[in-house]
Amino acid sequence: PTGRPEGEYRSAQHEGSPMSARTLVVELFTEELPPKALRRLGGAFAESLAAGLRQQGFLTDASAMTPYATPRRLAVAITQVLAVAPDAEVIDKLMPAKVALGQDGQPTEALRRKLGALGRPQLATAALDAADGPDRLYVASDGKADYVYLRSVARGQPLARGLQAALDEALAKLPIPKLMTDAGPAGYWNTEKFVRPAHRLLALHGADVVDVRALGLAAGRTTGGDRFLGRREVEVAAADAYAEALWAEGKVIASFDDRRAAIEAGFQAHLAKPVDVDRLVEAIERLRAPAPSA
Question: pLDDT tens, 167-190?
Answer without folding.
Answer: 999 999 998 877 777 766 766 666
